[in-house]
Write a structure and sequence with these properties.
Blueprint: E1 5-8, E2 13-18, E3 21-26, E4 31-35, H1 37-47, H2 52-63, H3 67-83, E5 87-90, E6 117-120, H4 124-129
Antiparallel strand pairs: 1-5, 2-3, 3-4, 4-6
């Protein structure tokens, strides 16, 4: 898993950073997530094309911790993201160099905590009823056949 790279499971998954908090919506499941600062940093790095190992190194540097100490936590968290179908593994030959400029760093160091997210299911029915994800190129409200 260390060398594996991932991408966002688009168009089913979207994310936004609002006031420093990463919110991720999965329109396939109707679940949404709120990431803690460590999880947000991993999400940003992985979605920018960094391998799991590189993301662990970057997160360790960001939070001033030993990379070996957090490598298994980063890998486990990426596994959870994949289980939730928020990210998809990308073929090794399909990935270019990660964007060096992609970062969630605002210059402020936060304390490292285990990467985690809160999963919310209270809007599941509403998000799944939304016809936006079932629209053809011809537009809404025509439902796909």
């Amino acid at each position: 898993m260390e060398g594996d790279r991932y991408c966002v499971n688009a168009p089913s998954v979207i994310s936004e950073v609002i006031d420093g908090e990463t919110i991720v919506l999965n329109f396939e499941s109707g679940h949404y997530y709120s990431f803690n600062p460590t999880a947000s940093e991993i999400w940003t790095r992985v979605c920018a094309g960094s391998s799991v190992a590189a993301a662990a190194e970057q997160v360790a540097q960001r939070f001033a911790v030993d990379p070996a100490t957090i490598a298994s936590e980063v890998a486990a968290f990426v596994g959870r993201l994949e289980e939730e179908r928020l990210i998809c593994r990308v073929a090794a030959d399909a990935v270019g160099a990660p964007e060096a400029a992609a970062t969630a760093c605002d210059g402020t160091l936060a304390a490292f905590s285990s990467p985690d997210f809160e999963k919310f299911t209270d809007m599941e029915e509403l998000l799944l009823l939304d016809p936006i994800h079932e629209v053809a190129d011809s537009g809404w409200p025509r439902k796909l056949a």
